[in-house]
Design a protein that fits this description.
heterotrimer, A alpha+beta (798), B alpha+beta (287), C alpha+beta (158), A: 798 residues, alpha+beta, Aldehyde Oxidoreductase, domain 4, seven-stranded mixed beta sheet, B: Uridine Diphospho-n-acetylenolpyruvylglucosamine Reductase, domain 3, Enolase-like, domain 1, five-stranded antiparallel beta sheet, four-stranded antiparallel beta sheet
Chain lengths: 798, 287, 158
C-alpha cells in the first residue's frame, strides 16, 4: 500500500475551506497504518465499555418476553413480583404512555413504519416484550419475572412470509396507530410493511428478444450480528434530574430522539453517552433497549442497568432480513446481459425496522454494477410475520441480492459458455458512467443521480485472477477421494453514505500545548474511526495523530452525527473532520500572521510549526495556543463544521474462493478466500484490510453455518453460541485481502467506504464454488452439510 | 446460576469427599470441571461438593491397561503419552475435538462420561475399549463396566453417595482404534461421533467393534454391524461398505433440531468406511 | 445469598474476596475491579472471559467463585501496562488485530498461555490455542499474525 502512484491529485477546492489541502499525493499520516489511538487501553483491559461503569445503588433490569408468536395480553398480574423483597419496579403496558414509534435508528422522518410501543398489550413474536422489572440484583430480577402471571389469548400466527399477504391471513399490526409517517406504501391490513419498485426500459420485451432467459428463485436466511458485547445500557438521573443514558449504540443522537419520543421526554432532558462499543454490525443501529431501561429509571429514580443475555440477543434483538428472490435475466448469444427482473419478498418479522431501506438497498447497491443493462425491473414487498425482527445488518439488503445475482451470473456464463471473468470486466460499471437505479432508488425518497468517480474493479479482477490462480483452480474437476474441489468468484459494489440525507459534524479546539480536542458524533464501533479521524486532522494540521485527542460520542458534548451506518463514517464524518481541521488551520494561520507580522501566503506548516518563508521565523502551535489563550487578543481557537454528501460512491471488490466438498457428507470446507478491494484511499490500510477480513469471515460463516432454527410455532430453538455456530479461528480458510488504491475525488483524501462490502461475496462465491466442485446449485442458504448433500443426492437420482 | 445454593465444599481428600457425599444426598451435586453445573439452571441444588482436590487426577499405565483419574481434564488426557499411544490413539482422537482450549482445561474425564450428553464424544470411545469405572462409596469400591453404566443413563447407575474415581482403559495392545467427530464447525456439538477398533491378524479382522454417539440419547455399540466384518479380509472394501451400511440401520436415532435423522443415516456409512480404512491402513503401517 | 471469603492470588498479588456462594468467577473478578475480563455468553462458548487459572486458560464464567480459593489467576491486567506493553499486546496493535477490542483480553490470555508452553508455535497451533475465543470483527487474520509476531519478538528473532 505504499504505492501511491495511482493516486491522482485532488482538486484544491474540494472542500469549502480557508486553506487548500496539502500532501495531495504525498500523504504523511493518512494512508499509513498507524496503531489504534485507544489501543493501549483496549489491550490492557481498561474499563471502557458500558458495563464497566459502576453506579452506587444501581438496579438490574430484566425483560419478560413472550412465549407466543402472536397473542393478546388479556391480563398481567404483577403483584407477586412487586412483593418480592429487592424488586423496585415492575412495568407493563398499563404503566407507560402508548406512543407509537419505530425502533429503527434512522434520521427523521424515519422511512420505517411506526409500529412499536415501548410496551404493548399485544405480542407479535416469541421474544417480544411483555413486562420489565428492576431489582437490586440480577437474580432477583430474574426471579421476579417468574412471578409475573400473564394470561394470553393466542392468535393465529403468520410464519411463512410468502403467505403473509394472502387473503384472510392474520393481521399482525391491527392497532390503529400503525402507519408510515412519510407518504409511502404501507398496508398493515395485508401485513405489508414496505414496498419498493422501479422500472427502466421494457424488461418483458428485452427478455423476449434474448437468446436465453434464466429464471431462478433464491432464498437467503436469517442471521444474527453476534457482536461479542451484547446490547447493554445504563440509565440514571444526573443531579439536575436529566436522564442520562450510557449505551452501546451506533446511533447516539437517534437514540436520544427516539427515547424522547417513546417516553414523551423532551430531548433537552436526555443525554446519551456512547462509550467504547464491543461491535455492532448494524445490530446497534437501533433503539433496542434504552427506552425500557430509561422507563425503569424514571419510575425508580435510580440507576438501572439492562443487558441482553446471549439468549436474548438471539431471541429479541435484530436480525438480517431473509429474502425470497425470484430473479429473471436474459442473455444474448455473445454473452451480453440483456435484462434484469428482480422480485423480492422480504421478511421483516414482527416489526418493520429498516423494512423499506434494506429493500431499496437490495436494488441500489447491486443493480448499478450491471449498468450496461437498459431494461431493469425491481419489485419488492417487505412483509410482516410473527418471527424475529429484521434490522440493519452489514451489507444491508445487498448481501441478499448478491446471493441471487452473483450465482445467476455464474449460471448464465456456464450455460452460455462465457468466461465469467470477461463477463464482469465487460459489464461492470466504469468511471464516468451512471445508472438510472441510483436516481430511482433512494431511501424513503428519490435517490441521487450519480456518475462513478473512481472504480478499480477491473484492476481488482485482474489482480485477483492472478493472485488466486483462477484459471488453475476454476473448472478443473479436481477430485481426491470423496473430496471434490472447485472455485467460484463474484464482483461487488456497495455505497458510501446516504446522499442528501445523512449529516455528520465535528468540533475541534486547541489546547495550551498545541494539541487538539476533536469531538465527533460519529461512533467508532470497533472500525477504528476515532483513529482515522485523528489521522485526517493530523494530516491537515501537520501534527502527529497523538496530538489529536478524539472523543466520540456524547449528545451533550459532541456535535450531531447520524451515527455509524450506511458505510458512511469515513466518507461522511471524515468530510466534517477535514473541514473542521482546515478551519482551525485558517485560524492558526491568522494568528501566526499576527505574531510574525506577515501574510498568509508566506506561511509554511510543518510538524506543528508555522514558518514564515520570508522572515525565517517560526511559531509553534504551542506558541500560538499560549498567545491566543493568555497573551493578546485572547480567544479560543476552535471550529466546527458539518458535512453532507451529494453522492454515495461505491467501493468495489472481486472475491475468489476455493472450496472442497465432501460428496458423501455434503460438508463444504472453504480453503482459500481472496478479496481484492477498491475503497479509494485507505486512510489506515491495516484497518481497511481488517474491515474486509472481518466482513469476509462473517460472510463465510453466514454462508456455511449460521442459521435460525424454528419450531412449528415460530420459537427460535438455537439461541446460543453452542448451537448457532459462528466460525472460530480453526474453521477459517486462508483469508487474504488486497487493497487496490483509487482516488475518489468526492471523498476525504480520496477515500470511499469499506466496512460493508466484504460481507456480500461469500454466499454467491461459495455457492458458485460448490457448483464448480460438486455440480449442484445451492439456491438456498446456508450451505450446511445436510443441505448440500440433499442437492448431491437429487443430482445423482437424475 | 444455582439460586438455592447454600454450601460449597472442596474436600482435600477422597475420604472426606465420600463422607460429604454420604451425608448430603439430598440436593447435593458433585462438581469437578464445573462446566455442566454452571451451565445448568438448577434450582434444586443446595450443596456442591467439588472433588477437584481429591487426588483423582493421575494417569498411569500398569499391567491392566491405562488408568486415568476421574478429575483428569481433557487437556491432560491429550498431553498424556499413555493416552496418545493407547489403542492407536482412539481416546486421543475422541478427546481432541471436545469443545475449546479453555473448556478442555476444565472439562474432566469423569464429568464428560457421567453427564453423557447426547453429543459427548468420549462415551463412544469408552464403549469401544470396554472401559471400566471405579466407583467409590464411603465403605466400598466397586467396578462398573462402562457398557453397563450407559445401558440407562450413567447417573442412574451411580448412586448419590458414590463417586467415580477412575477409568480403566483395558490393555488393547493388539488393537488399533480410530475415532471421528462429524460437526458443522470445529468448536461444536457432534452431529455424529463414530469409532472403530479392530484386531487384525493374518490380514483379516479377528475382532472389530463399532460405536456411535450423538445419534441417540446414549452412545451405542453396534455389535451386529461389526460382526459382519469379523473374519473378513481387512482389505475387503465391499465387506466394509456393507458393514458400514448396516451400522446406519442398526443405530437408534433420535431427533436433532439441526439435521434430520435421514441425513444422519445417510452419512454414517461414509464415516464408518473411512474409519475402517484408517484402522486398516495404520495396522499395515504398524506391521 | 450466602457469601464466603476466598483467598487467592490475582496477577501475583494476594487477595481476599468476599463472593456470593453461587457467583461466577467472572462476576467476582469484575466486581473486584478486573474489568478487563469481558463476558459475552455466560456459557463458556465465546471466550471473552478467559483468564489463566494456575497457568491454564479457562472460561471464568464457568468457574464457581467459591472454588477459586487458593487459585493463582492471571487476567489481562496482569500482562502489561499501557506504558510497558507485553509483546503480545504490542504486536496485536501493530498488526491491526484489535477492532472493537471486546474479545481482545480473552484472546491475549489464551495466546499468552500458548507462548509460555510453546515459544515457537506454527499457525495451526496458534489457531488451536485460540479456538475458544470468538471474534466477530477481525476475521482472526491479524490477531493470529500478532501471535506469530509476538512469539518472534519474545524469542529474540529478527
Amino acid at each position: 500500500m505504499k504505492d501511491k502512484k495511482t493516486i491522482k491529485n485532488a482538486p484544491a477546492d474540494k472542500f469549502e475551506s480557508g486553506a487548500p489541502l496539502e500532501h495531495k499525493d504525498n500523504f504523511k499520516i493518512v494512508n499509513s497504518s498507524i496503531k489504534k489511538v485507544e489501543g493501549p487501553g483496549l489491550v490492557t483491559g481498561k474499563p471502557m465499555f458500558t458495563d464497566d461503569f459502576e453506579f452506587h445503588g444501581m438496579l438490574y433490569a430484566k425483560i419478560l418476553t413472550s412465549p407466543h408468536a402472536h397473542a393478546e395480553i388479556i391480563s398481567i398480574d404483577t403483584s407477586k413480583a412487586e412483593k418480592l423483597p429487592g424488586v423496585k419496579a415492575v412495568l407493563t403496558h398499563k404503566d407507560l404512555p402508548r406512543i407509537i414509534h419505530t425502533t429503527a435508528g434512522q434520521g427523521y422522518p424515519e422511512p420505517s413504519p411506526y409500529d412499536s410501543f415501548t410496551l404493548d398489550k399485544k405480542v407479535r413474536f416469541v421474544g417480544d416484550r411483555v413486562a420489565a422489572v428492576a431489582a437490586e440484583t440480577l437474580e432477583l430480577a430474574e426471579e421476579a419475572l417468574e412471578l409475573i402471571k400473564v394470561e394470553y389469548k393466542i392468535l393465529e400466527a403468520v410464519l411463512d412470509p410468502l403467505k403473509a399477504r394472502a387473503k384472510g391471513a392474520p393481521v399482525i399490526h391491527d392497532e390503529d396507530e400503525a402507519r408510515m409517517i412519510i407518504p409511502l406504501a404501507y398496508d398493515k391490513n395485508t401485513n405489508l410493511a414496505a414496498h419498493a419498485e422501479m422500472s427502466e426500459g421494457d424488461v418483458e420485451a428485452a427478455l423476449k428478444n434474448s437468446e436465453r432467459v434464466f429464471e431462478h428463485t433464491y432464498e437467503s436466511h436469517y442471521a444474527q450480528h453476534c457482536p461479542m458485547e451484547p446490547h447493554v445500557c445504563i440509565t440514571h438521573l444526573d443531579p439536575n434530574d436529566r436522564l442520562n443514558i450510557i449505551t452501546s449504540t451506533q446511533v447516539p443522537f437517534h437514540t436520544r430522539r427516539i427515547v424522547g419520543q417513546a417516553l414523551d421526554i423532551p430531548v433537552k432532558r436526555i443525554r446519551v453517552i456512547k462509550p467504547r462499543i464491543g461491535g455492532g454490525f448494524g445490530g446497534k443501529q437501533e433503539m433496542l433497549i434504552e427506552d425500557i431501561c430509561a422507563a425503569l429509571t424514571m419510575k425508580t429514580k435510580k440507576p438501572v442497568r439492562l443487558e441482553y443475555s446471549r439468549h436474548e440477543e438471539f431471541m429479541s434483538a435484530r436480525t438480517r432480513h431473509p429474502q425470497h428472490i425470484e430473479l429473471r435475466t436474459g442473455m444474448n448469444k455473445n454473452g451480453d446481459l440483456t435484462a434484469i427482473d428482480v422480485n423480492i419478498i422480504m421478511n421483516t418479522g414482527a416489526y418493520g425496522s429498516a423494512a423499506l431501506t434494506v429493500l431499496c438497498n437490495s436494488a441500489s447497491k447491486v443493480l448499478p454494477l450491471f449498468n450496461k443493462v437498459k431494461d431493469i425491473r425491481f419489485y419488492g414487498d417487505s412483509v410482516y410475520t410473527n418471527l424475529p425482527v429484521g434490522g440493519a445488518y452489514r451489507g444491508y439488503g445487498a448481501t441478499q441480492t448478491y446471493h441471487a445475482i452473483g450465482q445467476q451470473v455464474d449460471i448464465m456464463c456456464r450455460e452460455m459458455g462465457i468466461d465469467i471473468i470477461k463477463f464482469y470486466k465487460k459489464h461492470h460499471i466504469k468511471e464516468g458512467e451512471g445508472s438510472p437505479v441510483f436516481q430511482k432508488m433512494g431511501e424513503g425518497k428519490e435517490g441521487v443521480e450519480m456518475k462513478i468517480g473512481s472504480c478499480g474493479l477491473e484492476k481488482c479482477i485482474d489482480i485477483g485472477v492472478k493472485e488466486f490462480g483462477w484459471y488453475d483452480k476454476f473448472n478443473k474437476k479436481r477430485v481426491e477421494g470423496d473430496w471434490h474441489y472447485g472455485a467460484g468468484m463474484v464482483c461487488l459494489m456497495q455505497g458510501s453514505s446516504i446522499p442528501e440525507i445523512d449529516m455528520g459534524a465535528a468540533y475541534m479546539k486547541i489546547n495550551d500545548d498545541g494539541s487538539f480536542n476533536l469531538s465527533l458524533g460519529a461512533t467508532d464501533l470497533g472500525t477504528g474511526s476515532d483513529t482515522i479521524f485523528a489521522q485526517m486532522a493530523a494530516e491537515i494540521l501537520t501534527v502527529q495523530p497523538a496530538d489529536i485527542i478524539v472523543y466520540s460520542s456524547d449528545t451533550d458534548m459532541t456535535p450531531f452525527d447520524v451515527g455509524a451506518y450506511a458505510s458512511s463514517t469515513t466518507y461522511l464524518s471524515g468530510g466534517a473532520v477535514i473541514k473542521t481541521a482546515e478551519k482551525i488551520k485558517a485560524k492558526i494561520s491568522k494568528v501566526a500572521c499576527e505574531m510574525m507580522k506577515t501574510t498568509e501566503d508566506d506561511l509554511r506548516f510543518k510538524n506543528g510549526i508555522v514558518y514564515s518563508a520570508s522572515k525565517k521565523e517560526k511559531v509553534s502551535f504551542k506558541d500560538i495556543a499560549y498567545y491566543t489563550l493568555y497573551e493578546k487578543n485572547q480567544f479560543q481557537i476552535d471550529a466546527s463544521a458539518s458535512h453532507i454528501t451529494h453522492k454515495s460512491p461505491p467501493p468495489f471488490s472481486a472475491h475468489f474462493v476455493y472450496v472442497a466438498v465432501d460428496i458423501r457428507t455434503g460438508f463444504v470446507k472453504p480453503l482459500e478466500y481472496l478479496n481484492v478491494t477498491d475503497c479509494g484511499t485507505a486512510i489506515n490500510p491495516k484497518f481497511a484490510e481488517g474491515q474486509c477480513e472481518g466482513a469476509v469471515l462473517n460472510g463465510i460463516s453466514f454462508a456455511l453455518s449460521e442459521e435460525f432454527i424454528f419450531d412449528k410455532k415460530g420459537r427460535l430453538l438455537n439461541t446460543s453460541f453452542n448451537d448457532y455456530k459462528i466460525f472460530n479461528a480453526v474453521d477459517m480458510p486462508a483469508v487474504k485481502t488486497i487493497l487496490v488504491p483509487t482516488y475518489e475525488e468526492s471523498g476525504p483524501f480520496g477515500a470511499k467506504s469499506v466496512s460493508e462490502i466484504g460481507i456480500n461475496g461469500a454466499l454467491p462465491a461459495i455457492g458458485n464454488a460448490i457448483f464448480d466442485a460438486a455440480g449442484v446449485r445451492m439456491f438456498s442458504g446456508p450451505y450446511t452439510p445436510n443441505r448440500v448433500l440433499a442437492e448431491i443426492k437429487k443430482k445423482m437420482k437424475k | 446460576m444455582l439460586r438455592k445454593l447454600e454450601n460449597y465444599y472442596k474436600p482435600s481428600s477422597l475420604q472426606e469427599a465420600l463422607r460429604l457425599a454420604d451425608e448430603n444426598t439430598e440436593g447435593a451435586k458433585l462438581i469437578a470441571g464445573g462446566t455442566a453445573v454452571m451451565a445448568a439452571k438448577n434450582n434444586e441444588v443446595k450443596t456442591l461438593i467439588d472433588i477437584k482436590n481429591t487426588g483423582t487426577d493421575k494417569i498411569i499405565k500398569d499391567e491392566n491397561g491405562v488408568r486415568a483419574g476421574a478429575t483428569v481434564t481433557i487437556a491432560s488426557l491429550l498431553e498424556s503419552n499413555e493416552i496418545k499411544n493407547y489403542c492407536g490413539g482412539l481416546i486421543y482422537e475422541a478427546a481432541y475435538y471436545i469443545a475449546s482450549t479453555p473448556l478442555r482445561n476444565m472439562i474432566t474425564l469423569g464429568g464428560n462420561i457421567i453427564q453423557t450428553f447426547p453429543w459427548s464424544d468420549l462415551p463412544a470411545a469408552l464403549l469401544l475399549c470396554g472401559a471400566e469405572l471405579s466407583v467409590a462409596s464411603k465403605n466400598n469400591i466397586r467396578k462398573l463396566s462402562y457398557i453397563n453404566a450407559v445401558k440407562k443413563h450413567p447417573s442412574l447407575a451411580i448412586s448419590k453417595n458414590e463417586i467415580v474415581t477412575e477409568v480403566l482403559f483395558p490393555d488393547l495392545t493388539s488393537y488399533t482404534g480410530k475415532f471421528t467427530k462429524f460437526s458443522q464447525t470445529n468448536f461444536d456439538y457432534a452431529i455424529l461421533d463414530a469409532g472403530v477398533i479392530a484386531k487384525i491378524k493374518d490380514g483379516a479382522f479377528e475382532d472389530i467393534r463399532f460405536a456411535v454417539s450423538a445419534a441417540g440419547s446414549l452412545p451405542q455399540l453396534l455389535s451386529e454391524s461389526a460382526a459382519l466384518l469379523k473374519g473378513a479380509p481387512a482389505d475387503d472394501k465391499g465387506a466394509a461398505a456393507k458393514a458400514a451400511r448396516h451400522a446406519a440401520s442398526e443405530t437408534i436415532f433420535t431427533n436433532d433440531k439441526r439435521v434430520s435423522i435421514e441425513y444422519k443415516k445417510e452419512i454414517l456409512p461414509a464415516l464408518f468406511e473411512r474409519l475402517i480404512e484408517r484402522v486398516v491402513k495404520e495396522n499395515k503401517g504398524g506391521n | 445469598m450466602k457469601t464466603i471469603e476466598i483467598k487467592l492470588k490475582i496477577n501475583n498479588e494476594d487477595k481476599i474476596l468476599r463472593v456470593k456462594i453461587n457467583e461466577r468467577l467472572v462476576d467476582a473478578l469484575r466486581a473486584a475491579g478486573y474489568k478487563g475480563i469481558k463476558k459475552g455468553c455466560y456459557e463458556g462458548s465465546c471466550g471473552a472471559c478467559t483468564v489463566l487459572v494456575n497457568g491454564r486458560p479457562m472460561n471464568s464464567c464457568m468457574i464457581p467463585a467459591a472454588s477459586a480459593d487458593g487459585f493463582e489467576i492471571t487476567t489481562i491486567e496482569g500482562l502489561g501496562e499501557s506504558d510497558n506493553l507485553h509483546p503480545l499486546q504490542e504486536s496485536i496493535l501493530e498488526t491491526g488485530g484489535v477492532q472493537c477490542g471486546y474479545c481482545t483480553p480473552g484472546f491475549l490470555i489464551s495466546s499468552y498461555a500458548l507462548l509460555k508452553s510453546n515459544p515457537d508455535p506454527n499457525m495451526d497451533e496458534i489457531k488451536r490455542a485460540t479456538d475458544g475465543n470468538l471474534c466477530r470483527c477481525t476475521g482472526y487474520v491479524k490477531k493470529l499474525e500478532a501471535v506469530e509476531r509476538a512469539a518472534k519478538k519474545m524469542r529474540g528473532d529478527k
